[in-house]
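Collaborator request, handled under Task 6.
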Amino acid sequence: MLKSFFQTKLIEAGCDEAGRGCLAGPVFAAAVILPKNYKNDLLNDSKKLSESVRNDLRKVIEKEAVAFAVASVDNHEIDKINILQASFKAMHKAVLQLKKTPELLLIDGNRFTPFPQIPHQCFVKGDGIFMSIAAASILAKTYRDEFMEKIACEHPQYDWHLNKGYPTAHHRAMLAKFGVTKYHRKTFKWKEQPTLF
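Structure tokens returned to the collaborator:
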């Protein structure tokens, strides 16, 4: 089971993003404040869970969290400021939308742009360590997947309902054949796996 908290004195919000390595669509981020000493045996890094389990956990998280918020930064903004900064911006937007103000942010990853007046702590693979970060990873992933499934009908040849915008062989082949759409990240090298920061 993941850890319920990093420390006990401050109100913690776990933060994570989804969609950094995609060729199309926004990057999504979530911030989640869970109750003190929260327990859930199923919570884990969203990438280690099946789609059905993620969707079930999303409902549980939204019902049981003290506060949660999900935000996104679109592909046009990603092209302007780069995917790393866009990921941080999406996390900031999510924190701003929380109905309760956290006193410490637990960030998945090894760096972060400081949020004004709220300290943070970074954790590599934090979504596999703390429940609040895992919960944020699940919300970010499920909300983003839902968005990609909605826009898939506009450009069905890219199979976004299946690949969610990631650079699969089919997705790259369709880019070579049909070119970019209004949802594609034009600064990404779509002929090969994009470099992740």
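The cover message to the collaborator said: "The CA atoms of residues 96 and 114 lie 13 Å apart. The chain has one domain: 12-178. Please let us know whether this matches your experimental observations."
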